[in-house]
């Protein structure tokens, strides 16, 4: 699947798996596009809320509670402004709720593994997970990295992170482990790799 990320919008029609929306017979339309500086506030909020939701019990409470959406927004602004042509930063938007997810990738920082590209961030607002935004963002990163000349991709996740199932569901396999430091504590991190950057069952995402 190759998407044209030069176009402003990438559109995916994804069937909502949210029970509320399913009960109403509603299908969410989630779009993926390149992030702009005006998205930084939403991205900063999503980053902090997702960490506090997903990593509670895995990372130190004090560290999670000290995270600031305002500080993270400043870092998002800087990151978007400093993006090189080899990097990409995307947001996922919901037709009703606006920006609900963010993701970024570029040439790998893990040079001892045989993967050209690396996902640096991939976060979906806890209130809007399991609607297909994560899949759409990962698809968009694959496309952008492919256009940048990359053919394989890796992502590091915190050990014990339920996102493991997400990566495996989308065709990633565990390729390495290492010790990382977060909030001053040592934690196991697990790498998932895609040697060919294809989703496990991409037929479920319909390009429009
Ligand atoms: C991991 C994450 C990005 C997934 O995003 P999402 O929008 O909820 O995922 P999707 O709706 O696109 O799900 C795609 C598939 O993965 C499955 N999946 C997603 N999260 C899952 C979970 N926690 N457990 C089991 N399966 C999961 C979905 O069921 C779906 O499979 P299906 O099509 O067979 O139903 C999101 O949950 C998140 O931001 N998590 C917290 C932060 C994080 O860990 N990010 C990764 C950084 S390393």
Give the SSE string: EHEHHHEEEHEHEEE
Rounded mean pLDDT score: 86
Query: Which strand order spans the largest sheet, edge to edge or round the barrel?
Result: 7-8-6-5-4-3-2-1-9
Number of strands: 9
Enumerate the distinct ligands.
Answer: coenzyme A
Shape label: globular
Any idea what the CATH architecture is?
3-Layer(aba) Sandwich
Determine the number of helices (DSSP H or I, runs of at least 4 residues): 6
What is the CATH class? Answer: Alpha Beta
Report on the structure:
The structure is a single chain. The protein has a single domain (9-207), classed as Aminopeptidase. It has helices spanning 19-23, 40-54, 61-65, 69-81, 133-147, 163-169, and strands at residues 9-13, 29-34, 88-94, 98-107, 117-124, 153-158, 173-182, 185-194, 206-207. Mean pLDDT is 86; it is low at 1-20 and 201-208. Helix content is 29%, strand content 31%. The chain has a nine-stranded mixed β-sheet with strand order 7-8-6-5-4-3-2-1-9. The chain has 208 residues and is of the alpha+beta class. Coenzyme A (COA) binds at residues 17, 50, 54, 122-124, 129-135, 155, 157, 161-163, 165-166, 169.
């Amino acid at each position: 699947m190759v998407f044209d990320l030069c176009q402003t919008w990438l559109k995916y029609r994804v069937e909502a798996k949210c029970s509320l929306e399913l009960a109403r017979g509603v299908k969410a339309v989630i779009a993926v596009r390149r992030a702009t500086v005006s998205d930084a506030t939403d991205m900063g909020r999503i980053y902090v809320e997702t960490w506090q939701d997903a990593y509670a019990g895995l990372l130190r409470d004090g560290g999670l509670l000290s995270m600031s959406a305002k500080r993270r927004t400043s870092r998002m602004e800087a990151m978007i402004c400093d993006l090189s042509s080899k990097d990409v930063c995307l947001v996922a938007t919901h037709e009703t709720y606006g920006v609900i997810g963010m993701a970024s990738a570029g040439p790998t920082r893990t040079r001892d593994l045989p993967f050209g590209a690396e996902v640096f961030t991939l976060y979906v607002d806890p209130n809007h997970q399991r609607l297909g935004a994560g899949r759409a963002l990962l698809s968009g990163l694959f496309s952008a990295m492919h256009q940048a000349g990359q053919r394989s991709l890796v992502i590091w996740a915190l050990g014990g992170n339920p996102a493991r199932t997400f990566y495996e569901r989308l065709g990633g396999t565990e390729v390495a482990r290492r010790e990382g430091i977060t909030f001053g504590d040592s934690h196991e991190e697990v790498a998932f790799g895609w040697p060919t950057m294809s989703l496990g069952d991409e037929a479920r995402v319909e390009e429009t």
